[in-house]
Amino acid sequence: MALLAIFVIAGAGHLIAQTVPAEISGTVQDAKGVPIPGVTVKNLTSAKVVVSDGNGRYKIAAAKGESLSYSYIGYTTITQVVASQAVVNVKLQEAGDKTLNDVVVVGYGTQKRSDVTGSVVSVPKARLSQLPVTNVMQALEGAVAGVNVTTTSSVPGKEPATLVRGQNSINANSGPYVVVDGVPLTKTGGSLNDINPNDIASMEILKDASATAIYGTNGSNGVILITTKRGTSGKPVIRYSGYAGLENLAHILTPRSGEEYLQKYADYLKQTNQVQQRPVPNIGELPAYNAGTTTDWVKEATQQGQMQDHNLSISGGSPDVKYFISGDYLNQKGVVKGYQFNRVALRSNLDVNVTSFLTVGTSLFLTSNNYDGGRANLLFATAMSPYGQEYNANGTYAIYPMNPEQLYTNPLLGLNTTQISRTTNINGNGYAEIKFPGALTGLKFRLNAGYTYFPKREGSYIGRLANDMLGTARSFNASTNSYTIENILTYSKDIKKHHFDFTALYSAQERKYNETTAGAVGFINDELGLDNIGAGATQTSASYRDRYGLNSQMGRLFYSYDSRYLLTLTARRDGSSVFGVNTTKYGVFPSAAIGWNISNESFMKNVSLVNNLKLRLSYGKTGNEAIPVYRTITTDGTARSPFNGISTIGVQAGNLGNTSLQWETTKTANIGIDFGILKNRINGSIEAYQNKTSGLLLERSLPIITGYSKVFDNIGKTENRGLELTLNTQNFVGDKFRWETMLVFATNKNKITSLYGDGKDDLGNRWFLGQPISVVYDYKMTGVWQTGEDVSKQDPTAKPGSLKFADLNGDGKITADDRTILGQIAPKWTGGITNTFHYKNVNLSIFIQTAQGMTKNNPDLTYGDETGRRNTPAEIGYWTPENMSQTRPALSYNNTLGYGYASDASYTRIKDVTLSYVFGQSVLDKLHLGSLTVYASGRNLHTFTKWVGWDPENNYFTRGSLDWVNNYPITRTFVFGLNVSLR
User: Fold this and answer.
1) Cα 537 from Cα 524, distance rounded (Å)
2) How do residues 72-105 score in pLDDT, each as one tens digit?
3) CATH second-level architecture of 103-240?
């Protein structure tokens, strides 16, 4: 009996061990070993559900033999049977059809990717991290089909130019509308420079009217939606990400050496029939020439660039209170002396479930941008003689290095000036969301409120050491105050196979702007400079203030039947303060879209090759009011004039108002196909679109005798057509090695279809019917006239060494009538290819970008040597009777026709390469870390191009133009960084 009792007890104990739940814990990671927070872990037997914390860790009650399910959006759900172990670590693989399961932001809400009927593209998350960029748009260049991002300058802190599906407007703003966490960033004074890329959780770009019409007047040029990171339930997670590295000029257009400079001078005198008096042009160059010393002025004006960024965040919370707090410090020391950019950014996101039906939250951030610093002048550095004198005997900069030549001053004089440029963005957004219970389940009301205060300060003082013998001070202060209030009502309902989503909106926006300027000239000394403008002998001051307002109503209905047939109807009504009294300030912008999930049809069930196939069609209308305020009002400016020996203030013609101004309207048609084949190892989308814009807000030229030179009017039409392709392929998938490719391609054809209604072109503005908005209109160069060639029948004024142009009208001479369109400035097509390789914990990403079909005037060729007075790049060259160049003119050639040297600006660039290593769990356990990734990244590594100059993408300005001081070529960057999270 005793023995039987022992067996009974033992058997009971064994039974208890199998039936009494034990606590199972572990970590959920992705294929790279990075923890995944928010994974749903479900015990399929007991229906118990938990969610992984910020470090991917979870705990759940489960007995041996029970099954645990691990699911997360974008990853393949797996099931794990519990054995005897107490720790179960799992890795989730990205789902081949993850694009269908992803929840994407579509404006005032979210949708499953499979339900989207408009053109919405999600930016690959890999582009949002591990790249040395100060502005998130720099990471998108060439990486998103239909989004043309152009880095025209690498000036630290400068924003790139962005166009979505081409340029619709001529004079009005064509940039996309940016919304962060549901509240607009555009029109508040701020920019994407104010957003820390490390804070971004997702980024969507809305491209067609169905997607953008919900933003009405703000959606005509595309919409960029940014969602920042939020907190998750679980213990606090501390993350650090940072990088540091070096910057250099990607390509240096090297000036001539001493010997080459001397030869150029001798050749110039020979070609202009002058007698050479000395080996150098100026007396001030003789001491260095006689001493045999030269100065590398580009080297003197540049330096080793440096870049570092440090970001620290903490997130966590309970099921009812979640928080995310981050701080970022970025410091960039430019490659041209004096240029720098500092950014300090703080963010606090909070979500609180006050009750079961009420949730409130905030999104607060503060960003301080500092662009201070007197700057060297790179254009003058390339102009200096290598025998020029850099310093005076007392160690100060020589004002005229090539004395007595006074056309060029020392390129380093700007370092002796005081320059202040700072902005601060203080942004506070809050929301309250009510979910209605019972019979009203599915009904939600959300109130969004946002306020932005954006102060800006600029100041400068130029004194004696910078060649201003009187001293000039200027102080500028401006501030922008903006608010946005949105009332959003949504209702979601399922009736058998029918699904309905309705969204209604009423919103109001207001922006107030004011500025004051103070200046003075004539200071006794330079000691106080900008700190005492009142000490100046001649005082100036000015001020300005304006207000902008927008009221909007919107409704959107989404309907789905059995996840097969989709319909989206949207209408928005906007009222803008920029329009006049003779017309309505309101515009209505409707759109409609249909979608057909073909792969969900019964006849597709046995088609194993195709996993996803969806057809999308949309048509709609959007508006554009992107002109300055008060253009409907006729205003006068002030002017001082002497009267009886006294300076008297009078008025002069300012802006001629047009009280009939109304909306610029764009009608858009879009057709798209989303596809996935071979178990979604090949997936992507193909889209074609047509945008027709009418009633352009165009500045019409007026006879100056009227007192006004121009006036805004609704005239002209443009058209954009394009094709876009996005393709993702999994080329090889193995246990240890994977290879993936992402390819994007976009083509855009832009043209002006109407201007003033008279069927005529506008030669003065270079606007031509049937041609792109921005073209190069110039003479067609066919070579260089050589010695002995007969010029009488084509260009009687030409001489050997003169540029040879085509006589297009055949009148035997070169006149303005021989000009023609040589090409378009915008690319005809763009593309990018990213290859990513994974081997165990090592990842390598290589991104190549291209832009083709661009033609630009080349200022590096245009400025020549300015009648022998400057140095020129050795790469450019010049004609001589001996070398018989067919591409460059003689040094004696005067460009009286103003030829711009149109050049092919197409290029292909190794844009960025990133190599990273993700540490495995065993190492993390030893280090007591949640995750650790180290990486090295290079950007703008090499450019393949026919362009002769600094860079084909760079806007390099000639002396005297608006922004000629800030000439700053494209830079190459190398950084090392790490991302780490603590347990």
Assistant:
1) 9
2) 766 778 888 888 788 888 988 765 444 445 678 8
3) Beta Complex (2.170)
